[in-house]
DNA sequence: ACACTACATGTAGATTCGCTATATGTAGAG
DNA sequence: CTCTACATATAGCGAATCTACATGTAGTGT
């Protein structure tokens, strides 16, 4: 879609290459976060970095997006956090809970269905091909 | 994610089978609509039906979603509409414009990038596999 | 000492799109 | 008449993402 001004701008300044439109990110972010803490706990800043690296730079997310999402996930019981001091700085580390693990599995399944449904409409296969 | 009350409920009553979460639909709807009018003009109600059929029932969208989207698309110049009377009823038919065709191509490209980025984070491929 | 960058966390408020709820009207069947 | 199907429309709500802004520590360079 076309660019728009405001927080949901289609191509904000931070997405300098082929970034993901924030509108399309909606509904997926929580699962993405669960995925990057699946195998080891990480603190917020490291989660932001992991999202960027694993997506090849397409997911370069503002802290204003990620931190409230972590709040939501913890409130929902999908992650649990604890505070540490590392090198003189406080750090809040998040680990996946059992419920979070189940939720991630569920979200992966939903992702498959989502991509199937959208993909079928957006790129219909020719009949009889 | 968990169900929520209000218009953005995760699993509204109308999604009785494997439906698409409205949060994840966001940002994709316009492209979906452009896709179903790509090869022939359709009126609003027929667009809703086509979306449902082509998605295998996963996209069962309320009129309150689709009609404002058609408004947006027409305002943006991606579709053009005209009124007819069919069988004694008025009907508003939408056709894809040249700009809309270009936009649809752009959106298809964005979809590929989007699925790549999200898929890579959500389901990382094992290293050295 | 100061300025700057990196690391690390947090949040108020604006924007936007999808939904619910609601409305209007015609045609056809029972 | 009632009900369903067809067909269109829109006000207002909710919530997630972003921008903008804030705080603080550590390390480097001048």
Automatic annotation (TrEMBL), chains A, B:
Q: Which domain of life is it from?
A: Bacteria
Q: Entry's SUPFAM superfamilies?
A: Winged helix' DNA-binding domain
Offer one Pfam family short name for this entry: PadR
Residue span, Transcription regulator PadR N-terminal domain: 33-105
Q: Which InterPro entries match?
A: Metal_resp_DNA-bind_regulator (IPR052509), Tscrpt_reg_PadR_N (IPR005149), WH-like_DNA-bd_sf (IPR036388), WH_DNA-bd_sf (IPR036390)
| Protein name according to UniProt | Transcriptional regulator
Lineage summary = Bacteria, Bacillati, Actinomycetota, Actinomycetes, Streptosporangiales
């Amino acid at each position: 879609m076309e660019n728009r001004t405001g927080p949901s701008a289609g191509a904000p300044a931070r997405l300098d290459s082929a970034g993901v439109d924030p509108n399309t990110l909606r509904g997926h972010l929580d699962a993405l976060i669960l995925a990057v803490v699946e195998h080891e706990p990480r603190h917020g800043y490291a989660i932001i970095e992991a999202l960027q690296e694993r997506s090849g730079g397409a997911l370069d997310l503002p802290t204003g997006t990620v931190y409230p999402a972590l709040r939501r996930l913890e409130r929902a019981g999908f992650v649990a956090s604890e505070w540490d001091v590392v090198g003189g700085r406080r750090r809040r580390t998040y680990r996946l809970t059992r419920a979070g693990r189940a939720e991630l599995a569920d979200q992966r399944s939903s992702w498959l269905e989502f991509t199937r449904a959208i993909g079928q409409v957006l790129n219909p296969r020719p009949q009889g091909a």
